[in-house]
């Protein structure tokens, strides 16, 4: 099967919805010509995260300089002083390798990519079955204190309100079904 690699596939969701698990699954499908877009961020690395592999870790001053130089396709100040963004050079690098670019990014970032490349982009919003399920998943991660958890849940509600701006909404209730559905969706999109 022949695939069109001049494409962008965006997965966005509230934190804890399962988008990273879905993206990892898609990247494991060796017959799909996909590559992960490494985002830039001002946050500190977590655990074993590596610069240039998981994220491009930048200090706030460097990030803002790149904004001024218009080096980002999209960027967002997700929380005060915490920036995430997609460097234009990253997308060009992956396209030069004949790979479709796969994103795991913030909801507003996903909308920005779609606005920049409306005919080349598939946007997928991964939705939890309920806000209660999302809260339970975030608590199970055990990575946030109560205050941070509440900030995430408040942001999640705002993000859920944007779901209808995406090409496809997938409710991640059963992981096996979700993985199968997203894989089928991506294959169809790359075949056009």
Report what the structure shows:
The protein has 192 residues and is α/β, with parallel strands linked by helices. It has a single domain (8-190), classed as P-loop containing nucleotide triphosphate hydrolases (Rossmann fold, 3-Layer(aba) Sandwich). It is built from 7 helices and 9 strands. It has helices at 19-28, 60-68, 88-96, 107-116, 131-141, 146-160, 175-190, and strands at 8-12, 34-36, 40-41, 56-57, 72-79, 82-87, 100-104, 121-127, 168-171. The protein has a 5-stranded parallel β-sheet with strand order 2-7-1-8-9, with helices on both faces. It has a 4-stranded mixed β-sheet with strand order 4-3-6-5, with helices on both faces. Strand 5 and strand 6 form a beta hairpin. Helix 5 (131-141) packs antiparallel against helix 6. It is globular and about 50 Å long. It starts with 7 loop residues before the first strand and ends with a helix. The mean pLDDT is 91.
Q: Give the C-alpha Rg.
A: 16 Å
Question: What proportion strand?
Answer: 15-25%
Give the oligomer, counting copies of the same chain as homo and different chains as hetero: single chain
Strand tally: 9
How would you classify the helix and strand content by structural class? alpha/beta
CATH fold node name: Rossmann fold
Q: Rough shape?
A: globular
CATH architecture: 3-Layer(aba) Sandwich
Helix content, binned percent: 40-55%
- The termini sit apart by 11 Å
Instruction: Give the low-pLDDT segments.
Output: none
């Amino acid at each position: 099967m022949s695939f069109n690699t001049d494409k962008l596939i965006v997965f966005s969701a509230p934190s804890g919805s399962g988008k990273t698990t879905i993206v990892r699954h898609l990247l494991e499908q060796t017959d799909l010509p996909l590559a992960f877009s490494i985002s830039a961020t001002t946050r500190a690395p977590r655990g074993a995260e590596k610069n240039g592999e998981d994220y491009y870790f930048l200090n706030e001053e460097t990030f803002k300089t790149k904004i001024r130089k218009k080096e980002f396709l999209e960027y967002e100040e997700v929380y005060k002083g915490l920036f995430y963004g997609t460097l234009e050079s990253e997308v060009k690098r992956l396209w030069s390798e004949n790979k479709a670019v796969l994103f795991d990014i913030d909801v507003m970032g996903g909308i920005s990519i779609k606005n920049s490349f409306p005919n080349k982009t598939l946007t997928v919003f991964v939705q939890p079955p309920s806000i209660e399920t999302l809260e339970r998943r975030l608590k199970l991660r055990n990575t946030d204190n109560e205050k941070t958890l509440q900030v995430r849940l408040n942001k999640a509600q705002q993000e859920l309100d944007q779901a209808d701006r995406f090409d496809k909404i997938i409710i991640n209730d059963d992981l096996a079904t979700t993985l199968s559905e997203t894989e089928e969706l991506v294959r169809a999109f790359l075949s056009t």
